[in-house]
Amino acid sequence: MTNKPFNVGRDCRVVLIYNGSRVDLPTVTGFQSQQQTNRLASMPLNDMPRFYDVPNGWSGGFDFQRDSSGADDLFAAIESGFWSAGTIINGNIYQYVTEVDGTLTTYEYVGAAIRLSNAGRYQSENIVTQHIDFVASIRNKIS
Description:
- By secondary structure, the protein is mostly beta strands.
- The protein has a single domain (9-141), classed as Pnp Oxidase, Chain A (Roll), CATH 2.30.110.
- The protein has one helix at residues 70-85, and strands at residues 12-18, 21-24, 28-42, 50-65, 91-98, 104-118, 129-136, 138-141.
- Strands 1, 2, 3, 4, 5, 6, 7 and 8 form an eight-stranded antiparallel β-sheet that branches.
- The longest helix is centred in the middle third of the chain and has 16 residues, at 70-85.
- The radius of gyration is 19 Å and the shape is globular.
- The protein starts with 11 loop residues before the first strand and ends with a strand.
- This is Phage protein.
């Protein structure tokens, strides 16, 4: 098998698990995440300053084509749960990355709060694209 020289966007898949339900997003067209930190600074009188970054979760977002009502149904359930019982549901996001050597790496974003920041624009002869933003407590490497 020939190794690829680098990752390309096609090497990533995303799955949401909320309230025990799996929501597959088969056509993710963009995914990005970044670690959040709290920056601490120590300014000793007798030495150079020192800086520390304390992990403080992850944030990001992803674009996907609307292939089904899965995402819309998930957000309807989250919203309904809040207005009917005052519950706030967090879930997990799984990112699957095919590495350049062909192996699969799985990352789990735990305790994710999500927002459907773009539910899509419906227009004749165009693909409906939606966007979800998220914040999560931690990103674990599963495999």
